[in-house]
C-alpha cells in the first residue's frame, strides 16, 4: 500500500460511542505530511476522544486509522502521544529525567532498562524544551507549564513522524507556550506532522496551517486560510464562539464585530 | 520488648517465626508500593478477604493442611476475586470501589460459612484453619517459611524483571499503551504478584488485617523518599521490621493474636513517618508554615511603615509602635517583626522609641509591590 498523496494521517468513518451515546460520529480526516494541525471545537465535541481513538486507547465502534499508509497498529513506532497533563498523578515518586526516559521504553522493548544512551537522548529532549536543569527534580515540584514541557520532551524522545498532542497549551505560562511553539515549528521543519487539540481560537492562525473543526461530527477541515471562517466556527460552536480573531481578515470576516460575538469575547 | 534478642538466634521456633515474618513483610510491603501508587489500596483488602473461601475449599477438596495446598487455594480464590471485580466494573455501572466492597464481603461471607462447616466435621485434622482469620505466627513451621520465601522470591524476581513496565503502568497507563506495551497483560502480571504477596502472609497475619501489610509500609515509605525504587526498598524494610517485631511479641506473650500485633507495630512506623519524615512530615510542614507566616507578617509591617511614610513629606519620620500595632490588630507580634526589620536594616528605632523606614527599607517595600507578594494589605 503506497502513501496516498503523502498523507500522514488518514481516518475513515471513525465512530465512537459510550453506551449508545455517540461521542464521535462518522469522522473522516486527512492530514498531509509535515503540517501543524489544530483540532478545535466546543467542550464535549470529542476532540480528545478523536486522538485517543486514533491511538487505540478508546475502542471505536467503527472506522479505521491509517498512519503513513498502514494501519496504526503497525505504525505505532512512528507515532507519539502527549496526553493532557492532568491525566497523571504528579505526586508520583519519580524524577523529571525518569519520566522523559519513558519515551525510550517503546524502542527498548520488554525488560531492558534504560542506560546511558537513553539518558543522553532524554537530556537532549529536556534541553530542547529548556528544562535540562530540572532533570533530577522530583516531578511534584514542577509548575503546570513545566509539567507540560516534560511531557513534550518525553514525546520528542520517541523521535516519531506523527505527534498527537492533547491540549498542550492548556493553562501554561507564556514561557512554556513559546517553548511549545518553538518545538512545533522545529518538528514541522523536519517534515513531521503534529496534531494538536487546541482551545485558543485567537492563536490558531498564528500557530497552525491546517485545521479540523469538530463537534461530534466533522464540521470542516483543511487549510486554515480556507476553513477557519466565521461561518464554520458558527456551525461548530453553535453561534457561541468563545473567541474570534478579528485581525488577519478571515474569509467572510465581515460579520466579526457583531454584538453577540463581542459580548462573547469579553466573557 | 521482653524477649532477649539473643534468643532470636538460639531458639529454633523463634528463629523460624522471625524468618517467615521477615520474608512476608518484605514481599507484601514492597509490592504494596504499586498498590498504593495506583490508588488500589482497597484491592489488597478484597484479595485477602476473597482468599478465605479458597483456603477452606482447598482443605475440603484435598483434606490436606500442607501450606502449599492452602496457599494455592488462597491464591486461586484471591485471583478469581479480582477477576470478578474487573468483570463487575466492565459489565455494569457499578464503580470500582463498590465492586471491591461487594466482592470482599461476599467472598468473605462464603469463607466464614465454609470455615464453620469445617469446624463441625468429625475429623480431628480440621483444627487450626481459623488461624487464617486473625493470623498466628507461633505455629509457623519450617515448611511454611520455605513456601513464603519461595513464592516471595518469585514475586520479587518477576517485579525486578517487569520493573520498567510496572512503573509505566502505575504512572501513565495510556502512554504505555501508545509505546506498544499490552498494558492489560502488564496489569494482570502485577496483580498476580500482588496476590502472591498477600496469600503468603495470610497464615501469619490473617485475612482480616493482611491489607494493612500491603498499604501501610508503602504509605510510610512514601514519606521518606521521592523515588519509586527507594519507596519499594524502604516499604520492604518497614514490612519486615513490623513483621518480625509483631511476630516476636505475639509468639512470646500468651494468646496475643499475631495479625493485630504486627499491624500495631506497623502503625507505629506509619505514625512516625507521617509526623517526622522530612519534607512530607506534619511536623516539618508545621515549621514551614510558621516560618512563612512570620515572613509574611514582617513584610506586612514593612508595608505599613511605607504607607505611613507616604503621609509625611520628610523621609525618616517616626511612627509610634501603637500606630503600627493598630494597623495589624490580631496579626501577631508587631515589635518582633520590627526587630526583624531592624536586623535587616529596613527599619530603625528613633531615640524617642518611634519607628521609621530606612532608605533600604523603602526600596525593599517597592520591590515587594513589584513582585506582588502578598497583594494589597
Helix content of chain A: 25-40%
Which consecutive residue ranges of chain A, at least 5 long each, have pLDDT under 50? 245-267
Which class of secondary structure composition applies to the elements of chain A? alpha/beta
Give me the secondary-structure category of chain B: mainly alpha
Rg of chain B, rounded, reads: 30 Å
Please state the CA-atom Rg of chain A, rounded to the nearest Å: 19 Å
Oligomer: heterodimer
The count of β-strands of chain B is 2
Q: Which residues of chain B form runs of ≥5 with pLDDT under 50?
A: 373-377
String of helices and strands of chain B = HHHHHHHHHHHHHHHHHEEH
Record field, number of beta strands of chain A: 10
Tally of helical runs of chain B: 18
Using CB atoms under 8 Å apart, which protein chain pair has the greatest interface? A-B, 33 and 27 residues
- Number of separate helices of chain A: 10
Describe this structure in words.
The complex is a heterodimer of chains A (267) and B (377). By secondary structure, chain A is of the alpha/beta class. Chain A has ten helices and ten strands. The longest helix of chain A has 16 residues. The C terminus of chain A is likely disordered. With 377 residues, chain B is an all-alpha fold. The relative contact order of chain B is 0.12. At the A-B interface, strand 6 and helix 3 of A face helix 8, helix 9 and helix 13 of B.
Amino acid at each position: 500500500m503506497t502513501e496516498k498523496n503523502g498523507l500522514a494521517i488518514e481516518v475513515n468513518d471513525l465512530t465512537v460511542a459510550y453506551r449508545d451515546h455517540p461521542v464521535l460520529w462518522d469522522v473522516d480526516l486527512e492530514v498531509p505530511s509535515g503540517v501543524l494541525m489544530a483540532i478545535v471545537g466546543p467542550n464535549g465535541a470529542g476532540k480528545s476522544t478523536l486522538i485517543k481513538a486514533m491511538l487505540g486507547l478508546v475502542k471505536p465502534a467503527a472506522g479505521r486509522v491509517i498512519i503513513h499508509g498502514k494501519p496504526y497498529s503497525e505504525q505505532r513506532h512512528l507515532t507519539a502521544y502527549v496526553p493532557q497533563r492532568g491525566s497523571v498523578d504528579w505526586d508520583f515518586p519519580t524524577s523529571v529525567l525518569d519520566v522523559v526516559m519513558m519515551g525510550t521504553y517503546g524502542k527498548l522493548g520488554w525488560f531492558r532498562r534504560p542506560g546511558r544512551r537513553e539518558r543522553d537522548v532524554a537530556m537532549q529532549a529536556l534541553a530542547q524544551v529548556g528544562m535540562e536543569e530540572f532533570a533530577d527534580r522530583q516531578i511534584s515540584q514542577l509548575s503546570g507549564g513545566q509539567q507540560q514541557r516534560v511531557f513534550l520532551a518525553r514525546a520528542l524522545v520517541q523521535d516519531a513522524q506523527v505527534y498527537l498532542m492533547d491540549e498542550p497549551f492548556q493553562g501554561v505560562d507564556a514561557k512554556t507556550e513559546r517553548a511549545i511553539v518553538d518545538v512545533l515549528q522545529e518538528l514541522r521543519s523536519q517534515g513531521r506532522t503534529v496534531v494538536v487539540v487546541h482551545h485558543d481560537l485567537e492563536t490558531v492562525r498564528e500557530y497552525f496551517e491546517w485545521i479540523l473543526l469538530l463537534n461530534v461530527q466533522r464540521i470542516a477541515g483543511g487549510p486554515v486560510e480556507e476553513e477557519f471562517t466565521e461561518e464554520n466556527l458558527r456551525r461548530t460552536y453553535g453561534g457561541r464562539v468563545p473567541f474570534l480573531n478579528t485581525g488577519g481578515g478571515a474569509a467572510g470576516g465581515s460579520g466579526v464585530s457583531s454584538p453577540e460575538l463581542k459580548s462573547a469575547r469579553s466573557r | 520488648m521482653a524477649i532477649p534478642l539473643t534468643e532470636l538466634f538460639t531458639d529454633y521456633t523463634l528463629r523460624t517465626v522471625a524468618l517467615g515474618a521477615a520474608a512476608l513483610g518484605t514481599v507484601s510491603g514492597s509490592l504494596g508500593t504499586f498498590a498504593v501508587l495506583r490508588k488500589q489500596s482497597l484491592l489488597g483488602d478484597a484479595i485477602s478477604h476473597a482468599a478465605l473461601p479458597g483456603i477452606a475449599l482447598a482443605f475440603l477438596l484435598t483434606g490436606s493442611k500442607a501450606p502449599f495446598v492452602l496457599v494455592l487455594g488462597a491464591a486461586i480464590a484471591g485471583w478469581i476475586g479480582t477477576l470478578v471485580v474487573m468483570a463487575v466494573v466492565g459489565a455494569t455501572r457499578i464503580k470500582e470501589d463498590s465492586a471491591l466492597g461487594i466482592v470482599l464481603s461476599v467472598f468473605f461471607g462464603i469463607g466464614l460459612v465454609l470455615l464453620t462447616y469445617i469446624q463441625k466435621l468429625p475429623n480431628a485434622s480440621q483444627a487450626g484453619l481459623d488461624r487464617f482469620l486473625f493470623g498466628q505466627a507461633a505455629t509457623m513451621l519450617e515448611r511454611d517459611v520455605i513456601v513464603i520465601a519461595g513464592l516471595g522470591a518469585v514475586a520479587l524476581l518477576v517485579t525486578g524483571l517487569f520493573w520498567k513496565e510496572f512503573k509505566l503502568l502505575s504512572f501513565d497507563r495510556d502512554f504505555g499503551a501508545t509505546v506498544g506495551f499490552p498494558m492489560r497483560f502488564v496489569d494482570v502480571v502485577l496483580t498476580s504478584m500482588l496476590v502472591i504477596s498477600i496469600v503468603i502472609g495470610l497464615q501469619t497475619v490473617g485475612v482480616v488485617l493482611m491489607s494493612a501489610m500491603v498499604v501501610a509500609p508503602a504509605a510510610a515509605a512514601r514519606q521518606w523518599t521521592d523515588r519509586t525504587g527507594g519507596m519499594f526498598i524502604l516499604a520492604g524494610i518497614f514490612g519486615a521490621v513490623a513483621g518480625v517485631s509483631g511476630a516476636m511479641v505475639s509468639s512470646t506473650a500468651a494468646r496475643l493474636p499475631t495479625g493485630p500485633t504486627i499491624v500495631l507495630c506497623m502503625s507505629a512506623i506509619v505514625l512516625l513517618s507521617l509526623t517526622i519524615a522530612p519534607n512530607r512530615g506534619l511536623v516539618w510542614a508545621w515549621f514551614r508554615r510558621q516560618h512563612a507566616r512570620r515572613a509574611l507578617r514582617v513584610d506586612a509591617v514593612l508595608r505599613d511603615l511605607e504607607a505611613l511614610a507616604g503621609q509625611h513629606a520628610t523621609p525618616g519620620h517616626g511612627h509610634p509602635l501603637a500606630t503600627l500595632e493598630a494597623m495589624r490588630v490580631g496579626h501577631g507580634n508587631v515589635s518582633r517583626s520590627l526587630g526583624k526589620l531592624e536586623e535587616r536594616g529596613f527599619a530603625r528605632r528613633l531615640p524617642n522609641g518611634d519607628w521609621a523606614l530606612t532608605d533600604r527599607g523603602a526600596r525593599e517595600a517597592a520591590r515587594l509591590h513589584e513582585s506582588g507578594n502578598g497583594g494589597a494589605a
